[in-house]
Amino acid sequence: MSKIVSIPNATTLRQPAELAARGLVAADQLPTLDAVAQRYAVAVTEAVAALIDPTDPDDPIARQYIPSAAELVRDPVERADPIGDAAHAPLDGIVHRHTDRVLFKLVNVCAVYCRFCFRRETVGPGKAATLSGEAYRAALDYIRAHPEIWEVILTGGDPLMLSPRRLGEAMSDLAAIDHVKIIRIHSRVPVAEPSRISRELVGALQVSGATVWMALHANHPRELSAAARAACARIIDAGIPMVSQSVLLRGVNDDGPTLAALMRGFVECRIKPYYLHHGDLAPGTAHLRTTLAEGQALMRQLRGRVSGLCQPDYVLDIPGGYGKAPVGPNYLTPADEPAADLRYRVTDYCGDAHLYPPTS
Q1: What are the pLDDT digits (tens) for 108-144?
Q2: Distances (CA, A) of 111 to 49, 103, 114, 130
Q3: Region label for 352, one of left (φ > 0), alpha (ψ between -120 and 50) or beta (otherwise)
Q4: Rounded to an integer, what distance in angstroms lies between the CA atom of residue 63 and that of residue 94?
Q5: 323: exposed, middle or buried (C-beta count within 10 Å: 0-12, 13-18, 19+)?
Q6: What are the residues facing 187 on neighbouring strands?
Q7: Whether 171 contacts 204, CB under 8 Å
């Protein structure tokens, strides 16, 4: 595999002026939104644009994808690398935080760019779009040299931005490694660009020698459109099980009925709810983050409101690269600090305690 190639969608809205022409932002906001777009990538596919109600100033789909002036405000606790990927990156394209699994970042482009993305500093225009052939081969050599790696998680960027041919080559290369038993793909594409989930692309995911799983990222029940549900069905009918991951976002899914409808929607699509992420400390995202207490209250509501099939794990990625921790009552306690400076003590998977937010 000499080079990884992604295929852009020419109809995607990428400039604030294009969003204004579609009635998705006001023209008088353009100077400010141009400044946001110069700082953080913007991309809104036609499929996503069709889900937005332009008459609703608080539209939950727009809050996820349409740039906002609030993104130029940076909270002191926010970090360019909020979950500490760099601390566990032995070489380009690989993050090896947990013994039995690695992240393999094939691409740094996405179909859409979420306004809360924890990798917003490393994805989009102006960044290296893909791994070079040399870096790709080195990453495969690293995986081959570590027999403890049982699972490879394709992330990025969005791995489904690869052409079916290139994706198929990567899947085959990984499945040919004896100790790699699971290949997991994290993607927004079935929601953001469901037409991309073609028979050819699904066929590229089907490999012998490893079991393939897919994690779908969606945050609001309206994202599970008829087209998105059909795209997921094509994946699942091909024998690829799916799980969900969502981010708890203020003004998007931070109320009991919406969160319940989202989780039920996943289950209706044969997608098992997996993770509900607390918002990461990514730059310019404070306006979208809830508090941990609000998240816990919502999880208590969800437990009493919907089937056990619909229960995700509410997790916090501990800043600094310490991994995810469930943040229910059994794992989280207030630190011994003045009420005005309330912080939490959260325990990671190794049993070590960390303060959240961190001091620096």
Answers
A1: 999 999 999 999 998 887 777 789 999 999 999 999 9
A2: 12, 19, 10, 14
A3: beta
A4: 31
A5: middle
A6: 216
A7: yes
